[in-house]
From TrEMBL, chain A:
GO terms for cellular component: plasma membrane. SUPFAM superfamilies: P-loop containing nucleoside triphosphate hydrolases. Residues 6-254 form the ABC transporter domain. GO terms for biological process: D-alanine transmembrane transport; L-alanine transport; L-isoleucine import across plasma membrane; L-valine import across plasma membrane. One of its GO terms (molecular function) is L-valine transmembrane transporter activity. Keywords: ATP-binding, Nucleotide-binding, Transport. The keyword Transport applies. This is Amino acid/amide ABC transporter ATP-binding protein 1 (HAAT family).
Automatic annotation (TrEMBL), chain B:
It holds the Pfam family BPD_transp_2. One of its GO terms (cellular component) is plasma membrane. InterPro entries: ABC_transp_permease (IPR001851), BCAA_transport_permease (IPR052157). This is Amino acid/amide ABC transporter membrane protein 1 (HAAT family). Belongs to the binding-protein-dependent transport system permease family. LivHM subfamily. The chain crosses the membrane at residues 6-26, 33-55, 61-81, 93-118, 138-162, 183-210, 222-241, 248-266, 272-290. It comes from Halanaerobium congolense. GO terms for biological process: D-alanine transmembrane transport; L-alanine transport; L-isoleucine import across plasma membrane. It is a multi-pass membrane protein. Its main location: membrane.
Length: 258, 297
């Protein structure tokens, strides 16, 4: 029996009269790579925003490693080990790739202002260690060459990888990836698939993946949850989900049913 | 109108330029993290000047202690403004923020008029700052020099701080994108408060410098320097700290030179200069002279 890392209990989010997420319950096991799919407006991104603290929960609970994190602020959620990416790339556009990566170390560096000013030994050792880690991760993502470029000047594929790299540098135990392959070309998508596998298998970071590219989802997820109108309509292995009548209906409409 | 005259005028303008630079840096930092033009910044500046004046004349403290008290008072004012004026309306649109800050500005100014009257009150200058020195034909006051050097040092320290420290990087992060910064584990609320603390402390220094330079303080004293500081922030490319500081100096010197070349009856037209500059920037280069750190969205 594998250990639970994240548990959503009857999670609900209402925007005025609209219920975006309705009594949504699920669990994620440690090390799992879970796909979260569903038509537009199904509540996938809203669920991410609820977990990450960007939206206030209307009712229900979010349990992370046996702690209730329902009411935490976004920075506190990041602090306890949940990283996320956003649907649109959210790099800090005026900064270089390296500076963006350094942001991720904000929660890790424990040197104080005096260490910074006087460049103490502690500061230098830590700084060196961080830079090495950044370099290593960038290298793994094949974007080390762009380290000193301003992010605005880079193509979207590189930006997307940098976006994910930064989330990884937070050293999370759980990562929420919101449509990482959106707007990517096939070869970039293939590369991202490998990266996601690496994050999940080698770095052992539990992953929830929201994705519209079915090829990606079916290829790498061990389990899939299908959402529609804020609730689960199907759950299971890729094969089972693909064959599910309700899923076909949600995606393609009733007329496609055999 | 020879070169010596111009050079003399530029030197005279250094202290004004310094004050505007300090104010502009505060404007630009607060705009950076909050997207808010803090019109009450001029009042925070005034509160610093008033506190120092009262500490010296009322309580008999020496200037350095008065300066520290001024910084404490201005920081308190800035933090209270953030907590009770801006935080409650956060996220409710630019117009709301704009009007809130304008209301805070007028409210504080009016409160001080009620308490102290609208007349100028004398700001005493200690003897050791009254010296003057000559370089050939050019005269410079010690005060002018001290204010300038002090400002340059503060700005350099601040630039270093923003570029290299954990808090500084977090501030830049929040100014680029608050939500993403939060996803990186940065508590944006405390960063915003920290920014108000720094900006208000700089305004207090500028306020004390103003009192020393011009010898008096009054409740409405923050209005013109506040507007000039804001325009310097725009000129520097809002969000850009060194740009704001340099623009503050340019604007101060520009103001003084502007009236220096006009007949002396027009000396009251000094504020006109900043408005002309604002008009020209907004017309031809709304992103400012220097590359902005903020992405306009």
């Amino acid at each position: 029996m594998s250990e639970e890392i994240l548990k959503l209990v009857k999670l609900t989010k209402k925007f005025g009269g609209l219920t975006a997420v309705k009594d949504f319950s699920m669990t994620l096991n440690k090390g799992e790579l879970l796909g979260l799919i569903g038509p537009n407006g199904a509540g996938k991104t809203t669920t991410f925003n609820l977990i990450s603290g960007n939206l206030a929960v209307s009712s229900g609970n979010i349990i992370y490693q046996n702690n209730d994190i329902t009411d935490l602020r976004p920075d506190q959620v990041a602090d306890i080990g949940i990283a996320r990416t956003f649907q649109n790339i959210r790099l800090m556009s005026g900064m270089t790739v390296l500076e963006n990566m350094q942001l991720a170390f904000h929660i890790w560096n424990d040197y104080n202002i005096l260490d910074t000013i006087f460049r103490t030994k502690k500061f230098k050792i830590k700084e060196k260690k961080y830079l090495e880690e950044i370099n290593e991760t960038l290298k793994h993502f094949n974007i080390l060459d762009y380290k000193n470029d301003k992010v605005d000047d880079l193509p979207p594929g590189i930006q997307r990888k940098a976006d994910i790299t930064r989330a990884i540098l937070l050293k999370p135990d759980l990562i929420l990836l919101d449509e990482p392959t959106a707007g990517m070309n096939p070869s970039e998508t293939d590369e991202l698939v490998e990266i996601i596998k690496w994050i999940n298998k080698d770095l052992k970071i539990s992953t929830i993946l929201v994705e519209h590219d079915m090829r990606v989802i079916m290829n790498i997820c061990s389990r899939i949850i299908v959402m529609e109108n804020g609730d689960i309509i199907a759950e299971g292995s890729p094969e089972n989900v693909q064959a599910d009548k309700k899923v076909i209906e949600a995606y393609l409409g009733k007329s496609y049913q055999v | 109108m020879d070169l010596t005259y111009i050079f003399q005028q530029v030197l005279n303008a250094l202290s004004l330029g310094s004050m505007l630079a300090l104010l502009a840096v505060g404007y630009t930092m607060i705009y950076g993290v909050l997207g808010l033009i803090n019109f009450a910044h001029g009042e925070v500046f005034m509160i610093g000047a008033f506190t120092a004046m009262y500490a010296i004349t009322g309580l008999g403290f020496p200037l350095p202690i008065a300066l520290i008290l001024a910084i404490i008072a201005s920081v308190l004012a800035g933090v209270l403004l953030e907590r009770f004026c801006y935080r409650p309306v956060q996220g409710s649109g630019d117009i709301t923020l704009f009007i809130t800050s304008l209301a805070a500005s007028i409210g504080i100014r009016s409160l001080f008029v009620m308490l102290f009257g609208s007349r100028s009150m004398q700001f005493p200058m200690p003897k050791y700052l009254q010296g003057i020195r000559f370089w050939g034909d050019i005269l410079i006051t010690d005060l002018n020099l001290i204010i300038f050097v002090f400002t340059v040092i503060i700005t350099l320290i601040l630039s270093f701080f923003i570029k290299n420290t954990k808090l500084g990087i977090a501030m830049r992060g929040v100014s680029y994108n608050k939500q993403t910064a939060e996803a990186m584990g940065i508590n944006s609320t405390s960063i915003i408060v920290a920014t108000f603390v720094i900006g208000s402390a700089l305004a207090a220094v500028a306020g004390v410098a103003w009192g020393l330079q011009y010898g008096n303080v009054r409740p409405a004293m923050g209005y013109h320097p506040g507007i000039s500081g804001f325009i310097a922030a725009v000129l520097g490319g809002i969000g850009n700290i060194s740009g704001a500081a340099i623009s503050g100096f340019l604007l101060g010197v520009g103001q003084v030179l502007f009236v220096a070349f006009l007949p002396s009856v027009y000396s009251g037209f000094r504020p006109l200069f900043v408005w002309i500059v604002l008009f020209i920037i907004l017309f031809y280069k709304p992103t400012g002279l220097f590359r902005s750190n903020i992405k306009w969205e």
